[in-house]
Design goal:
Elements lengths: L8 E7 L8 E7 L7 E11 L1 H5 L14 E2 L4 E8 L11 E4 L9 E5 L3 E3 L6 H5 L2 H13 L7 E5 L4 H12 L3 E6 L4 H6 L2 E5 L4 H12 L4 E4 L4 H10 L6 E3 L3 H7 L2 E2 L10 H16 L7 E6 L3 H10 L5 E5 L1
Parallel strand pairs: 9-10, 9-12, 10-11, 12-13, 13-14, 15-16
Antiparallel strand pairs: 1-2, 1-4, 3-5, 3-7, 3-16, 5-6, 6-8
Helix pairs in contact: 3-4, 3-9, 6-7
Length: 321
Amino acid sequence: MQSVPVALRSRAVVATAFGGPEVLRTIEVDAGEPGPGNVIVDVRAAAVNPIDWKLYSEGPRNDPARLPLRLGYEIAGVVSAIGPSVRWLAPGDEVIAWRVSGGYADRLEVSEQVTCRRPATLSWAAASGLLLTGATAVHTLSATGTHDGDVVLVHGGSGAVGRMAVQLAVLRGARVVATASAATHDDLRDLGAIPVAYGDGLLDRLREVVRETGPLTVAVDTVGSDEALDASVALVADRSRIATIAGFGRAAELGIRALGGGPGADPGTAVREAARAQLAELAADGTLDVRVARTYPLEDAADAHRDSRAGHARGKLVLLP
């Protein structure tokens, strides 16, 4: 009698309703054989990003038919099986993958096309957090035409995207000014930026710095606050060289670039996809640093989302299945 294959099972985090982190549950799902061009990855780490909890936050357009909703866009792990037509991966290969669907899991089927080799210099947690924030930072610098000789203002320089933008702008030959809390200023100096405390009086403090650096030519806003946007338009003459990934509500009003998945924003798909290999190469030789703020067991995804929603994580939040 021929045996019947037993379906592989995987734990996965899902949103069972729309609301806050309390709606998250860990369930079992099937993880079968990979289809053409796909591989199965045994997940070692899954990065947390604000878009994850925004997907199930309550809003007027939420469709109950989408529930339960799998979460997670980027992972790092080991290939355990390959499907037909897979060209360059084999079982045992260590990879990072973005954009994936349902990355909060301990086993996941992904397209070979969204993977690249895990840089040996990065821990599993750091590797899982490289691509989404890195590609977003690349998009901001590409859209603003940042180049050698620019003076770049990065709002939220100690956040996951901001810290990437600081490093990549320095690599492009720019001089960087970064707003952040005082506790992170030493780290920003180590990355090559001039740190400035945000909060009341920001514009005056930036004007003092500009006396040393010369006029700001680019601004990258990862915060979305009125303070950040107002300072940017006050100090950067060419508004086409101001970009925000968070201040979508005022971008059109101010005549600045909105980037990402917000209303009217440029998603920059081609730029972000092309950045994958570049980011992996820079991380592999130690040029690009990924800071992990905290890690959590997969079952504690709700706690990770509470911390993400609170902000000021100073690095990536990562689930470890």
